[in-house]
Write a structure and sequence with these properties.
387 residues, alpha/beta, nine-stranded mixed β-sheet, Dihydrodipicolinate Reductase, domain 2
């Protein structure tokens, strides 16, 4: 099979592509990006005879679809704002698809993917993605599920790339309608910094307050657990404490509404200016601690008794003691590797059906966990009676 790695010049998607180079049997792996200089640098860094580069402007739909038709699959690492457009191109080209974000626009192309007997899995990184697998794994061992609480700590700089900057402003946009919890059969919209909860993550991350964030697990798990009478699904997240302090201050002072301001005759959106500053400033490019931490708690009944099943994950340290996991790569590899695993599972037929599938519908948790373990990303679990 041949795969086009869209957006693979980025720091996260290049890790997904590297994973394909190291672990998959794809006969051709193409780095596709608008940034030709960065894309060719990534292709050279990957240093594999199967890898080449194609310049792609996703806004030129006709040309993009023509290129995609040369491939069996597209691994889509483009930003949230481009996923509707990119998925449309992939569906019309008749390729399999997988992406990182999963904000929902992809599902409207379900019929076209089905017509072409192709599979699209939106939202398969660490979260959403691996978190869906962790929740599914626990819930599948229960007769009923009462509560699912998903949490993560993403320890990375505030603005090391344009897509990460976009993610920051999107998740804490006060008017974003996707920031919901699922409670007693309804999706309830909440504001930024809603429902704080102290969550204990594995060392070296420790315990910090986490807040509701707009992630697709809330929606996809509500669908998957509909027959288990689930009452509550909450998804929370945190970044390094200094990052959270800045975002909270920007929110409280109204900056996150991204209003237009005038300065010396020029007009611009204030968050665009702040994002640009952070992308150029050392404070936006570095952090004290790098890496990723997942924490998933599912409460329900098993063998007639109320239980709590907790899962978390660990990965090699970012301190330079493990080659390839130094500093920022401890974060980018965590996010990028699961998408590469998902692409590989689709390619070898370890996916359930065709169409636009949620992660829960698409993959077996054990298949995903086994592949993660080969990369030294380990899922841990604990089962105990629930209060």
């Amino acid at each position: 099979m041949k795969i086009l790695c869209l957006g693979a010049a980025g720091k996260i998607s290049r890790e997904s592509t590297m994973d394909l180079v190291e672990f998959s049997d794809f006969e051709k792996i193409t780095v596709g990006d608008y940034n030709e200089k960065a894309g060719r640098e990534v292709a050279a860094w990957l240093d594999d005879p199967r890898v080449d580069f194609r310049k792609i402007d996703i806004h030129d739909k006709e040309a993009t679809i023509k290129v995609m038709k040369e491939y069996d699959m597209v691994m889509d690492g483009t930003t949230i704002s481009l996923n509707d457009l990119s998925t449309e191109c992939i569906a019309k080209a008749g390729c399999h698809a997988i992406n990182l974000n999963g904000f929902g626009a992809e599902y409207k192309y379900d019929e076209l993917f089905r017509k072409n007997n192709r599979t699209c899995v939106p939202g398969f990184g660490m979260t959403p993605g691996v978190t869906d697998m962790m929740a599914k794994y626990a819930a599948d061992q229960m007769e009923t599920v009462d509560t699912v609480r998903i949490s993560h700590g993403a320890y990375r700089p505030m603005a090391f790339s344009a897509s990460i900057t976009e993610t920051t402003t999107t998740e804490y946009d006060p008017l974003f309608t996707g920031r919901t919890v699922y409670e007693n059969g309804e999706f309830i919209q909440v504001p930024p910094f809603a429902r704080p909860l102290d969550v204990k993550l594995p060392e070296p991350y420790g315990t910090n307050p986490q807040y509701i964030i707009p992630h697709s697990e809330t929606v996809t798990l509500a669908k998957y657990l509909a027959n288990k009478n689930v009452k509550l699904i909450e998804v929370r997240g945190t970044w390094p404490p200094k990052n959270m302090a800045l975002i909270k201050a920007l929110y409280e002072w109204g900056f996150m509404h991204n209003p237009k301001v005038k300065l010396n005759g020029a007009e611009f959106n204030i968050m665009d200016a702040i994002g640009s500053y952070l992308m150029q400033a050392p404070e936006g490019q570095t952090t004290d601690l790098y890496g990723y931490a997942l924490h998933v708690e599912v409460v329900g009944t098993r063998d007639g008794k109320k239980v709590k099943h907790t899962l978390w994950h660990t990965h090699p340290a970012s301190d330079g003691s493990v080659k390839g996991w130094e500093k920022l790569r401890a974060y980018t590899r965590n996010v990028g590797i699961p998408m590469g695993i998902g692409a590989m599972l689709i390619a070898v037929g370890k996916v359930s059906g065709c169409g636009a599938l949620t992660p829960e519908e698409a993959f077996s948790p054990n298949d995903v966990f086994d592949e993660l373990a080969k990369r030294d990303i380990i899922i841990h679990e604990k089962m105990e009676p629930a209060d």
